[in-house]
Amino acid sequence: MAKKQQWSSKIGFILAAAGSAIGLGAIWKFPYMAGANGGGVFFLLFIVFTILIGTPILLAEFVIGRRAGADAITSYKKLAPGSAWYLIGYLGTVVSFIILSFYSVVGGWILSYLGRSFTGALSGKTQEQYGTLFESIIANPWEILITQAIFIVMTVMVVQGGIQKGIERASRYMMPSLFILFLILMARSLTLEGAMEGVRFLLVPDWSFLTGETALLALGQAFFSLTVGLSVMVTYASYLSKEDSMPRSAISVTGLNIFISLLAGLVIFPSVYALGFQPDEGPGIAFVVLPAVFNEIAFGGIFLTVFLILLLFATLTSAFSILEIGVAALTKGNQKKRMPYTWLMGILVFIAGIPSALSFGVFSDFTLLGRNFFDFADYITSSFGLPIGALFISIFVSYRLKREDVLHEIQQGSSISGGMFNAWIILLRYIVPVAIILVFLS
């Protein structure tokens, strides 16, 4: 019998798990959400909710995955045999598949921009021209399909290598590189004249923005930025050694996610304010506003290329984890099947993503519930799939599993006290479900 795959070290697992969490949510979505909702107040609420809501669910997924030692679907079958709880695993696998189908489209956008940045084609334009360029790129069917395919191939090439030789090795290089690139960009952004106005916007709360809607949006951002609810972390934790501390790993992943969100804000908002742009430009801030910002500073083309490389790294590390949940469910630990099933999953994701890729061009007139294919896929996963998955995970661990079994699993590799364990269970049993329902209803 082949030896079960495991992470080679605790840091390898943390970097891979952090890479899963730190994707477009932290680098692309957080800045425009914070920019549109008051900056400092939104960031403060985001931190609170990430710690109190996101981390308990993250640790719950770790418990399920390591205790069962299997893929997401099999884990629930092993821990709750003869019940319907395994449907949580199927839900996470299906939602992951849908997410990657449109996530890969955004990865293709990044590749399109990165290619143009290498040739200098992104230099010397106005913000309006950058807006026109973005619209022309996402409406070009051949370019979008080709770049989407390239992004999926890059993801498949890593995931087919397995946990240690594929995902962990790539994360060990990509995550430190991401931090270094971020620090370089932040240093440049903070040295611009007028940059401190952007820093104050991000770090000093304007309490006039403290509303119920802002709180719900911040809760949603905290929830989705950790990619909890997909059972992705169930799959990742199934490769975790019994000697590793799950609470410390969960805290490390949460801390890195908050840190990267902070860095993203300190890269974008000082630059935006220093050069007279508005912080509430919306989702186009990475593809329309930032190129215009970098165009106004010395060596801006180089810094824009660095930012796009950083964004690509973050997007890929998330894509690895999302693809892995489907591959793990198909292979059931049989490594001989990993390569063919990884390519099969990649091909199916590409086919499923074609409508999303063409949503802004050829299929722009086709809508579902008033949304194009891309927005509809985002809507059903973010507003329904993830909240429902996370809700059931919190209930499963806090109500279905035996308390002593959960405590035993948590205490392996860690010295968590009974008081901390009880606090976590209370959060998971009472606070987290109420918060998730609020986000779901909003």
From TrEMBL:
<feature type="transmembrane region" description="Helical">
    <location>
        <begin position="144"/>
        <end position="163"/>
    </location>
</feature>
<feature type="transmembrane region" description="Helical">
    <location>
        <begin position="12"/>
        <end position="30"/>
    </location>
</feature>
<dbReference type="GO" id="GO:0016020">
    <property type="term" value="C:membrane"/>
</dbReference>
<keyword id="KW-0812">Transmembrane</keyword>
<dbReference type="Pfam" id="PF00209">
    <property type="entry name" value="SNF"/>
</dbReference>
<feature type="transmembrane region" description="Helical">
    <location>
        <begin position="383"/>
        <end position="401"/>
    </location>
</feature>
<keyword id="KW-1133">Transmembrane helix</keyword>
<dbReference type="InterPro" id="IPR047218">
    <property type="entry name" value="YocR/YhdH-like"/>
</dbReference>
<feature type="transmembrane region" description="Helical">
    <location>
        <begin position="85"/>
        <end position="111"/>
    </location>
</feature>
<feature type="transmembrane region" description="Helical">
    <location>
        <begin position="342"/>
        <end position="363"/>
    </location>
</feature>
<keyword id="KW-0472">Membrane</keyword>
<keyword id="KW-0813">Transport</keyword>
<feature type="transmembrane region" description="Helical">
    <location>
        <begin position="216"/>
        <end position="239"/>
    </location>
</feature>
<dbReference type="InterPro" id="IPR037272">
    <property type="entry name" value="SNS_sf"/>
</dbReference>
<feature type="transmembrane region" description="Helical">
    <location>
        <begin position="251"/>
        <end position="277"/>
    </location>
</feature>
<protein>
    <recommendedName>
        <fullName>Transporter</fullName>
    </recommendedName>
</protein>
<feature type="transmembrane region" description="Helical">
    <location>
        <begin position="175"/>
        <end position="196"/>
    </location>
</feature>
<dbReference type="GO" id="GO:0015293">
    <property type="term" value="F:symporter activity"/>
</dbReference>
<feature type="transmembrane region" description="Helical">
    <location>
        <begin position="297"/>
        <end position="330"/>
    </location>
</feature>
<dbReference type="InterPro" id="IPR000175">
    <property type="entry name" value="Na/ntran_symport"/>
</dbReference>
<feature type="transmembrane region" description="Helical">
    <location>
        <begin position="421"/>
        <end position="441"/>
    </location>
</feature>
<comment type="similarity">
    <text>Belongs to the sodium:neurotransmitter symporter (SNF) (TC 2.A.22) family.</text>
</comment>
<feature type="transmembrane region" description="Helical">
    <location>
        <begin position="42"/>
        <end position="64"/>
    </location>
</feature>
<keyword id="KW-0769">Symport</keyword>
